[in-house]
Specification:
single chain, 191 residues, mainly alpha, Hypothetical protein af1432
């Protein structure tokens, strides 16, 4: 029989209730890599009109990052940068950064979170917008890294690009998402 907490209001919970919930949440978190991989798989059927699917696009960006010698956290950021498209088409970058934030250094989450703004450089002027909006962040220490990331991103709609499959990146996804969340060894690296 499944164990459940005794309360109907959190204020009425006991120590035993919260120990049960803590274990339940830890067990659930252990499956995060599987859920991330499944969410990436859903990108294979999204956003028509591009010459590649969002999954193929994400794989291309990750492949380019890896080929450029990016470290594994940035490669993971490249792979997941558009994972929020399914549920948050207007703030997908924030969603992707939030997924990554407990597991990687702040530089990676900042780049992923800002990539939507930085990408407007390539297209927004065609729609009457200011392509230089990213310049408001030009003094930020990771500005150049985000520009480089977006160069991989904007070039990754090529159906002929030799792209690594998701299976290639699966061990990376599993390795990083098996880290303890908010571990200072990773979150303070490079700061």
């Amino acid at each position: 029989m499944k164990k459940i907490v005794s309360f109907r209001r959190m204020a009425d919970g006991t120590r035993e209730d919260y120990l049960l919930l803590d274990q339940s949440e830890r067990d659930f978190a252990a499956g995060l890599a599987d859920r991330v991989l499944a969410a990436l798989g859903k990108l294979d059927n999204s956003l028509e009109a591009y010459p590649v699917t969002r999954l193929e696009h994400s794989l291309q960006v990750a492949t380019r990052a890896e080929a450029a010698g990016a470290d594994e956290e940035l490669v993971l950021g490249a792979l997941l940068h558009d994972i929020g498209d399914e549920l948050a088409p207007y703030n997908h970058a924030e969603v992707a950064a939030a997924i990554l934030r407990p597991y990687v250094r702040p530089e990676v989450t900042w780049i992923v979170e800002q990539h939507g703004l930085f990408q407007t450089y390539y297209y927004v002027h065609h729609l009457g917008g200011d392509r230089h909006m990213r310049e408001r962040l030009k003094d930020h220490r990771w500005y150049g890294a985000c520009v480089a990331f977006c160069d991989w991103d904007q070039a990754s709609f090529d159906p002929d690009y030799p792209t690594r499959p998701l299976a290639h990146f699966e061990p990376l996804v599993r390795r990083i998402f098996s880290r303890e969340a908010h571990d200072p060894r990773y979150l303070t690296a490079g700061t």
